[in-house]
Write a structure and sequence with these properties.
Blueprint (H helix, E strand, L loop, with lengths): L15 H16 L12 E6 L5 H12 L3 E5 L13 H11 L2 E6 L4 H6 L6 E6 L5 H15 L6 E5 L6 H10 L6 E5 L8 H10 L3 E5 L2 H5 L4 E4 L10 H7 L18 E3 L20 H20 L9
Parallel strand pairs: 1-2, 1-3, 3-4, 5-6, 5-8, 6-7, 8-9
The structure holds N-carbamoyl-L-aspartate.
Length: 314
């Protein structure tokens, strides 16, 4: 397994074996966190965030600190030289000298990919516009693996803003690669999954996809319900957002017909698409999911930095 020095821009950059390897080590990191507490000593993570973030940036920071490394970076384009007109490619060329690995979030689709073409250190895409979010997908996979045992034979509903939601783009592309998976894509007509993603999945993998605007139809049938926020910041006008913002609201009542062991997931932040009365339900796993994000990012960075040779990871 050679992940050393690689970039992670799109989930398809890694094979399923490589993803499973990252998940396996993440599970050991969760159980035996102290064993890894110095593996990144002397290493520096740069967090280049041109867009707001709570979980992604802070879980990357927490992950690097738990591995014994250090962190520097910016959390707002206004605090960086981007506000003076500097290009992503120039910024990243100097990041090489300041750090050993970079995570970048950008409002422009493709910015982390461009950065990877100018960087000699690994670039991780922390979310690029309405495009992809591969490390959220690793987080989601670890959550499912930990709670379901295996990632296969699952019916999954992805619900909400499937047009602009980068988490669901990456998740659908990746889950489709596992054995015997089927999907309900639940969204209003105006927020359907982009056809380039649907066509990619359908033409490459043998999966069943049902597109519907009816959440009730899916809720009793699925093993995983993945809710998402309507992505206000990607709309061209506020009026369209207001029309669609309350499309799906999950309540205690609404999940009555669901399977006993259905997982209710959400990448967070939520606005009002899951009522707080759902939080106490044992099927609601979104806060646990956020915790998985730390271990999977520890594993990802340790693998890309090649610091695990002397550690017994099993
Ligand atoms: C998501 C994102 O930034 O795409 N958040 C996250 O990283 N956990 C989801 C969202 O903002 O809706």
């Amino acid at each position: 397994m050679n992940l050393v020095g690689r970039h992670l821009i799109d989930p398809s950059n890694f094979s399923l074996e490589e993803i499973d390897h990252i998940l396996t080590i993440a599970r050991d990191m969760e159980k035996n966190t102290r064993k890894y507490s110095e593996v990144c000593k002397g290493k520096i993570l740069a967090t280049c965030f041109y867009e707001p973030s709570t979980r992604t940036r802070l879980s990357f920071e927490s992950a690097m600190l738990r591995l014994g490394g250090s962190v520097l970076g910016f959390s707002d384009a206004a605090n960086s030289s981007a506000s003076k007109g500097e290009s992503v490619s120039d910024t990243v060329r100097v990041m090489d000298a300041y750090s050993d690995i970079v995570v970048m979030r950008h409002n422009r689709e493709g910015a982390p990919k461009l950065a990877s073409q100018y960087s000699s250190v690994p670039i991780i895409n922390g979310g690029d516009g309405g495009h992809q979010h591969p490390t959220q997908t690793l987080t989601d996979l670890l959550t499912i693996k930990n709670l379901k045992g295996e990632i296969k034979d699952l019916k999954v509903a992805l619900c909400g803003d499937l047009k602009y939601g980068r988490t669901v783009h990456s998740l659908l592309k990746t889950l489709a690669r596992y054995e015997n998976m089927s999907f309900y894509l639940v969204s209003p007509e105006a927020l359907k999954i982009p056809s380039y993603i649907k066509e990619y999945v359908v033409s490459n993998y043998n999966v069943e996809i049902i597109e519907t605007d009816n959440l009730d139809e899916a809720i009793s049938k699925v093993d995983v319900l993945y809710m998402t926020r309507i992505q206000r910041e990607r709309f061209f006008n506020e009026e369209d957002y207001v029309k669609l913002k309350d499309s799906y609201i999950l309540t205690k009542n609404k999940i009555q017909p669901a399977k006993e062991d259905m997982l209710i997931m959400h990448p967070l932040p939520r606005v009002n698409e899951i009522y707080c009365d759902v939080d106490d339900d044992k099927r609601a796993v979104y806060f646990y999911q956020a915790k998985c994000g730390v271990y999977v990012r520890m594993s990802l960075m340790a693998n890309l930095l090649g610091v695990l040779d002397d550690v017994d990871c099993k």
